[in-house]
């Protein structure tokens, strides 16, 4: 069990470093996570390259022709996509600012007109966010990825989604391939009477421990892929959900705040067509946004009363006076289902918009 213990400790060490890189709060990792430091990217690339270096030369002679056809593409594609994710920027600059202002309308729920970036000193386009690590405003900001030393936004989200898919395929395919090769080793080195005794858990693990230590390179990498495949798949599922819901990682946090306000009974809704002076959404010119909404929301502990003035750049109310007479047309919002997300165009249009393809216009 000595060699197997070493294998398990190595895998647990790598898994711990991966977990800390994602969620750690230690000072050294805090520094790395809050600066565009290459250590995490180097660790990521090294993990892929070293695993493939140990696995492929040993496994290649035992692969069938169909595996030899597919494996090179499955192995190389993640490196290509990592490169594209790293070098493709979604920064908003003075040169493309006018174009970015026309990319999305303000929904006046999550994003409001008239707000300026205090660092970049220009109006913030809808769905954008300033990244303190990249030191730039990012178009359709999703999140800053420490693994890629870059923000994921409008221009590289397609590569990021593709990377998650390719990593999920690589790790799942590699795990199944490794299991197939280790099964061959099991048939060769384990007598049939011991194979028949593998019905019990203790005997099962003991025999597989012998197999893994007998074929340490394939066994170690297979175990590592088995442990990390669910993580890559979970990220892929989460971002698939975000595409389905028509939002980004950044926006999901904003919607969580609204959910708390709805649960606290602080959100009131009315139809813009019934409220005098209610602001209209920004017109995008020749290509109007496919989804419009007649909703207008305000945050307050009481429904709007006589004397209120709607702010022109947010969902807040400015009162000249509040005599206490509620205004008709306002109803308390009891469910997030009552709030329209104008960026949700349906799954296929959401997917097309996420990867930079034109979406179908409805009006």
From TrEMBL:
Main localization of the protein described in the UniProt heading: membrane
Residue span(s) of domain Palmitoyltransferase DHHC: 113-255
Compartments (UniProt record): Membrane
Membrane topology: Multi-pass membrane protein
InterPro entries per record: Palmitoyltrfase_DHHC, PFA4/ZDH16/20/ERF2-like
One GO CC annotation: endoplasmic reticulum
Enzyme class: transferase
Gene Ontology MF annotations: protein-cysteine S-palmitoyltransferase activity
Transmembrane segments: 7-33, 39-57, 69-92, 157-182, 231-249
Pfam families linked: DHHC
Keywords attached to this entry: Acyltransferase, Lipoprotein, Membrane, Palmitate, Transferase, Transmembrane, Transmembrane helix
Coiled coil stretches, renumbered: none
Top-level taxon of the source organism: Eukaryota
Domain statement: The DHHC domain is required for palmitoyltransferase activity.
Family note: Belongs to the DHHC palmitoyltransferase family.
Name this polypeptide is given: Palmitoyltransferase
Organism listed in the record: Penicillium cinerascens
Top-level taxonomy: Eukaryota, Fungi, Dikarya, Ascomycota, Pezizomycotina
């Amino acid at each position: 069990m000595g060699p197997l213990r070493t294998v398990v400790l190595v895998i647990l060490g790598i898994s711990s470093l991966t977990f800390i890189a994602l969620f750690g709060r230690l000072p050294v990792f805090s520094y790395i996570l809050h600066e565009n430091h290459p250590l995490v990217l180097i660790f990521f690339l090294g993990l892929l390259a070293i695993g493939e270096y140990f696995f492929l030369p040993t496994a290649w002679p035992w692969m069938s022709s169909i595996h030899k056809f597919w494996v090179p593409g499955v192995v190389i594609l993640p490196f290509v996509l990592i490169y594209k994710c790293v070098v493709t920027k979604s920064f908003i600059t003075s040169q493309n600012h006018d174009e970015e202002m026309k990319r999305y309308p303000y929904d006046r729920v999550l994003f409001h007109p008239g707000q300026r970036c205090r660092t970049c000193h220009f109006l913030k386009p809808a769905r954008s966010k300033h990244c303190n690590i990249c030191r730039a405003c990012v178009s359709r900001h999703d999140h800053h990825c420490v693994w890629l030393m870059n923000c994921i936004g409008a221009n590289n989200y397609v590569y990021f989604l593709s990377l998650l898919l390719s990593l999920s395929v690589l790790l799942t395919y590699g795990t199944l391939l490794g299991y197939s090769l280790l099964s061959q080793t099991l048939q060769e080195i384990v007598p049939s009477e011991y194979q028949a005794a593998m019905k019990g858990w203790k005997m099962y693990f003991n025999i597989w421990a012998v197999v893994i230590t007998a074929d340490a390179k394939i066994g170690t990498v297979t175990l590592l892929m088995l442990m990390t495949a669910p993580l890559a798949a979970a990220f892929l599922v989460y971002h698939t959900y975000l595409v389905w819901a028509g939002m980004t990682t950044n926006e999901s946090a904003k919607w969580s705040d609204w959910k708390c306000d709805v649960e606290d009974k602080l959100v009131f809704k009315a139809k813009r067509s019934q409220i005098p002076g209610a602001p209209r959404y920004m017109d995008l010119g020749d290509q109007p946004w496919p989804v419009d909404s007649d909703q207008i929301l305000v945050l307050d502990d009481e429904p709007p009363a006589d004397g209120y003035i709607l702010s022109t750049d947010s969902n807040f109310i400015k009162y000249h006076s509040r005599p206490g007479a509620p205004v008709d047309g306002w109803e308390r919002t009891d469910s997030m289902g009552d709030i329209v997300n104008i960026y949700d165009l349906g799954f296929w249009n959401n997917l097309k918009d996420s990867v930079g393809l034109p979406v179908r216009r409805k009006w």
